[in-house]
């Protein structure tokens, strides 16, 4: 993909997979940027993805902690319903979500309208719950005896011990909204608000036929879209290793 984005003339043969200095150019990136404004698309994707990650982590920590460390009636039912939600394809919810978000709430052409359907991620809740279940119960019992509230226990004791879970949830959540096309395409008509994935799709449908090298321009846009995800995974790859939770208990 990277080599194809740098080709002045597309080469679909097997030799096109190897860089040819005589066929290397950066014009494809200039062309795609002039057509859809790559920076604006990246900024919109960042706002959309950042909002989803923020709500996912906040609600995931709260719900995961409650399901793992707090005892209340119906806890098992709530957890079962959360697992059931994972079995429902998002495409089945598109029509009722569209009616609710666009018609009832009036959030069309807004970042909030894009973010709300993804604000709570059942997969992230499951990840946090499993990590919180591994924490020694004596830590929480001692804090409760000292008079600490549940929110204080969560903030000062639980969260520092589940940082690998937070990184895992962020990385797992990032890919979904960053590459999401269908929902932002439905709720946004203003090009200035569309994420990069939607802008690239519009370019392929409407503008690519007029480009001098549409193959290279599309690959250039795909490289720009993929670069932040690749960089994020490379940077945080070591954080997937869980901390030794048992070392937090002394005696």
TrEMBL record:
Domain ABC transmembrane type-1: 42-236
Domain of life: Bacteria
TM region(s), chain numbering: 47-68, 77-99, 111-132, 153-175, 215-236
UniProt keyword list: Cell membrane, Membrane, Transmembrane, Transmembrane helix, Transport
Topology term for the membrane: Multi-pass membrane protein
Subcellular location, principal: membrane
Family, per entry: Belongs to the binding-protein-dependent transport system permease family.
Annotated localization: Cell membrane
SUPFAM superfamilies listed in its UniProt record: MetI-like
PANTHER family per the UniProt record, alphabetical: ABC TRANSPORTER PERMEASE PROTEIN MG189-RELATED, ABC TRANSPORTER PERMEASE PROTEIN MG189-RELATED-RELATED
InterPro entries, per database record: MetI-like (IPR000515), MetI-like_sf (IPR035906)
Gene source species: Pseudarthrobacter humi
Protein name (Swiss-Prot/TrEMBL): Carbohydrate ABC transporter permease
The keyword Thylakoid belongs to this UniProt entry's keyword annotation: no
């Amino acid at each position: 993909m990277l080599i194809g984005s740098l080709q002045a003339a597309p080469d679909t043969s097997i030799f096109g997979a190897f860089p040819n200095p005589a066929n290397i150019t950066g014009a494809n990136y200039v062309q795609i940027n002039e057509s859809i404004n790559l920076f604006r698309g990246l900024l919109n994707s960042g706002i959309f993805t950042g909002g989803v990650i923020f709500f996912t982590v906040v609600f995931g920590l709260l719900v995961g902690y409650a399901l793992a460390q707090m005892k209340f009636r119906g806890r098992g039912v709530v957890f079962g319903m959360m697992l059931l939600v994972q079995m429902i394809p998002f495409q089945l919810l598109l029509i009722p979500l569209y009616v609710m978000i666009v018609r009832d709430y009036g959030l069309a052409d807004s970042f909030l309208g894009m973010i709300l359907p993804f604000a709570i991620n059942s997969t992230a809740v499951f990840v946090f719950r499993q990590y919180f279940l591994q924490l020694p119960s004596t830590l929480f019992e001692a804090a409760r005896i000292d008079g600490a509230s549940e929110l204080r226990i969560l903030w000062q004791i639980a969260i520092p011990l589940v940082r690998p879970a937070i990184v895992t949830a962020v990385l797992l959540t990032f890919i979904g909204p960053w590459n999401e096309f269908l929902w932002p395409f439905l709720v946004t008509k203003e090009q200035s608000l569309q994420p990069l994935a939607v802008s690239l799709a519009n370019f392929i449908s409407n503008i690519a036929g007029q480009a001098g090298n549409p193959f290279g321009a599309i690959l250039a846009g795909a490289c720009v879209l993929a670069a932040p995800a690749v960089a994020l995974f490379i940077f945080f790859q070591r954080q997937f290793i869980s901390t030794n939770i048992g070392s937090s208990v002394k005696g």
